[in-house]
């Protein structure tokens, strides 16, 4: 290869840059007048804002690792089924709060990882994720209108056998349940 070739390439580059330099001043507004994607093609204009969702590392928030009590799961029941059910319940609770892009994922069979961007109150996040719903059936109190009293012995969700959806005589779905 000839020794003059690199100098020739450099000379062509300098000449091209000199020819391409505009004769008038170019200024770029800062900050840009259109954040995001701006495209002007004659009468067609596209202005699309780029929205970024900051994750837990940039926005801040709470991360919880929930451990299931495997010894309390009834015999014959799958731990992974209970894990799936728990994740669905937590997902409904978290979505009710309007948290943007929560992470609710299984870690093994008996753990759930919960990441809540923007939630800084750890106690609130823990209460939402772990608070158990309790069912207690009460009857109206005849002596105090508008008040209710507990049955003796109390009738709670612990007395409830698994429920199922059945269809009545009009072919409408109803919940069928029994108490022990």
How would you briefly describe this protein structure?
With 180 residues, this protein is α+β, with helices and mostly antiparallel strands.
Provide structural commentary.
The protein is of the alpha+beta class and 180 residues long. Among the domains are: 56-130, Alpha-Beta Plaits, CATH 3.30.70; 136-176, no CATH class. 27% of the residues lie in helices and 28% in strands. It has four helices and nine strands; from the N terminus they run H-E-E-H-E-H-E-E-H-E-E-E-E. The protein has helices at 5-20, 56-59, 79-97, 122-130, and strands at 37-41, 44-48, 61-67, 103-107, 111-117, 136-140, 148-156, 164-167, 173-176. Strands 3-5-4 form a three-stranded antiparallel β-sheet. The protein is elongated. The chain starts with a helix and ends with a strand. The model has no long low-confidence stretch (mean pLDDT 82).
């Amino acid at each position: 290869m000839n020794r003059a070739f690199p100098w020739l390439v450099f000379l062509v580059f300098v000449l091209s840059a000199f020819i391409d330099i505009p004769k008038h001043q170019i200024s770029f507004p800062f900050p840009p007048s259109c954040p995001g994607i701006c495209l002007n093609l004659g009468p067609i204009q596209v202005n699309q804002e780029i929205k970024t969702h900051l994750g837990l590392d940039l926005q801040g928030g709470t991360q919880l690792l929930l451990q299931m009590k495997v010894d309390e799961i009834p015999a014959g029941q799958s731990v992974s089924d209970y894990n799936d059910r728990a994740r669905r319940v937590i997902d409904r609770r978290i979505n009710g709060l309007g948290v943007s892009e929560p992470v609710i994922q299984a870690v093994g069979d008996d753990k759930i990882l919960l990441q809540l961007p923007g939630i800084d109150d750890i106690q609130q996040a823990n209460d939402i994720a772990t608070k158990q719903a309790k069912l207690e059936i009460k009857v109206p109190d005849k002596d105090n209108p508008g008040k209710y009293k507990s049955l003796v012995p109390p009738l709670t969700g612990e007395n409830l056998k698994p429920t199922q959806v059945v269809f009545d005589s009009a072919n409408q779905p109803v919940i069928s349940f029994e108490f022990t």
